[in-house]
Amino acid sequence: MEPFIIDLIIQNKQQLIERWLKEVENVKDDLYVQSVSEQAFHTMNLEFGHVILDTLELSLSEANEKLSQYTDRLIRAGWPLAYFTQGLQAFRRVIFELLSDYEKDVKKLISIFYNTEAWIDGIINQLVHDYTGSWENTFKLQKMSLLELSAPLIPVFESISVMPLVGTIDTARAKLIMENLLEGVIKHRSQVVLIDITGVPVVDTMVAHHIIQAAEAVRLVGAKCILVGIRPEIAQTIVNLGIDLSNFPTKSSLRKGIESALEFTNKQIIDV
Fold this sequence. Notes:
Elements (H helix, E strand, L loop, with lengths): L2 H9 L1 H14 L11 H17 L5 H17 L4 H22 L3 H44 L4 E4 L2 E7 L4 H18 L3 E8 L5 H16 L3 E5 L3 H10 L8 E2 L2 H11 L8
Parallel strand pairs: 2-3, 3-4, 4-5
Antiparallel strand pairs: 1-2
Helix pairs in contact: 2-3, 2-5, 3-4, 4-6, 5-6, 7-8
């Protein structure tokens, strides 16, 4: 930004902040922060205004770091993206209006306009980048947590474990299932693993391929795999697709699978 514009903004810093506070107050209802108290909203706007103006006297990397630290705190507090974008649009307007009062030369006004646009647009881009990055990171962590919870290996008896699968199985989830399965077999010293597909809505060629791979991996580490929860419509689909499940046992229900697992491990349930 040209030095004379920076000087004008700094010289009129207080007046600029006051105008901006009034402007933002007028659009509070559009910023989805109605639950914030008037005092908290005013304090945040005041701080936001000073953070924006401080970037004028910093290098680009320093300004971006300062902005990122500020926005990270607001994002964690739940302030919406609209607060940043609409707030900066309002800031852009009041800067140009204020500087227009002091500068009447058309060429300089045009220069002020383009310099102000570039400065504010840079800040908006940085804030949106930080906000989006934070959201994407949060979404990724939540997705990973859900994936981990959706493919647990549960020990139900000594040497017998169950992995209940629920929902659609894609390549990423199949990889996680495989990892949890192999780690769980070793951790729980499982001799028999029951893979329960009762909650899997569709078993197509790809899903069957992933299950067969998982069962083969279990066999290679010295355990036996039993596929349970095969509903009639799933059985029909498997037959129609020509999927070969002959290399490992299948059962229609978890109960029947557990009975087979107990028999395989020389155990039985008796009435006391």
